Amino acid sequence: MQSQYNLMMEGVDVKDPKTMESVAFDGKSMGEIMFRGNKSMLGYLENSKPAHEVFKGGWYRTGDLAVRHPDGYIQMKDRARDIIICSGEVISTLEVEALKEGFGGGVEASSREIIEFCEGTLSGFMVPTVMIFGDLPSPTGKMQKFVLREKANLVRGQE
Q: What is a GO molecular function of this protein (predicted)?
């Protein structure tokens, strides 16, 4: 089977948002997906403040964090606002959420079983030390991460 490389848009890059330098094509160095070109907007109608926040040096900042692989493939890791920083390490909520597929549907598990599963799957700094169970209601069926953050802050006493 033959594969064809198809570039969705010119001017797409993964850049360090502080230095605006392209990240290494190593599949590990994380940056923000940014693009520029004739297919991007010029700004927000009648509101210049957000445009200053999302445009930097002519690049549109998507808010999506990604790595770039040696073959040029861009792999999205998470939304910038959703990442968890623990002891200076960046934890992708998407990677943690993907673990639920390992348990399968309708399976019940204890805190210890979940933590042990994580120890065998995640990097050490990503493994939870405490589990809190409860519903995170969402009308769309997706997790409302802002509700989760509020609950975590209450548990940690950082309200």
A: ligase activity
